[in-house]
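input
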Amino acid sequence: MKRIKHTFLGIPDLPIRDARFVILPVPFEATTSCQTGTRNGPESIIHSSRYLELYDEELDTEPYMAGIKTLSAVEPTYKNLRAMISKIGRTAGGYFRQAKIVVGLGGEHTVSLGLVEGCLSKHRELNVLCFDAHADLRDEYEGTKFSHACVTRRITELGCRVFSAGIRSISREEKDFLDKTEKVKILRAHEMEGEKWRDILNKSLPSGTYYVSFDVDFLDPSVLPDTGTPEPGGFHWYETVKFMKPFIHRKDVKIAGFDVVELSPSGIFTHSSFLAAKLIYKIIGYLSPMN
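output
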């Protein structure tokens, strides 16, 4: 595994036994569409995170005190996509089975399939909540079933219930699949306008254990431009976190892990990577016991 130069937030390293959250960088891309660069996402997020304030003014706490450990990156394997996904799953699974909350840093969205497989090694009944502009339900794309455009389809084949929010780009093939399956429920972006959208989304999500996958193109390109497949009509910062807080704090919901994927940074520090780092730290804050 590849050693990471810095720790998330720049905080001192700590023993794995003392960590509630483990940051797992997965700098992998093989099937990106519009532009490359997601392989640089994890390093850019971690570098940019060092400029965050450790104190969260909303929560009136320093969430890092719950224990955050930055792991070495999962070294990419390019000969076989299935082998890479399995490698991610084996690595993440070891930490899930230690009851850690795994925070995956992509990389293209395909890495989420491996992270969900790892989560399933601990939690046999699992819901997956995806924040995404795209349905990612194609059976095959550009010659492979393991494309970023197929990741949600592959996750359904693991037996997970999938809930996707923010969808605003979908193919006819995906629409036909949705018409025939009960494994996926989506909330389209145009249905999520106004103050009531977070209440509607919360009511559509059943109780249970969740893995959350956050594709940064869920956000509007005016907020986060550094992504490979931007779509207009996305969401802003406060809309996003104001949904997450009540969802994460639901007594009938458990978050086993989450990822942030598809950041394609234009430099080692960008406002997009800083936003991604702050989103991760905000979610950690909402998940921390003191909150």
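quick obs: The mean pLDDT is 93.
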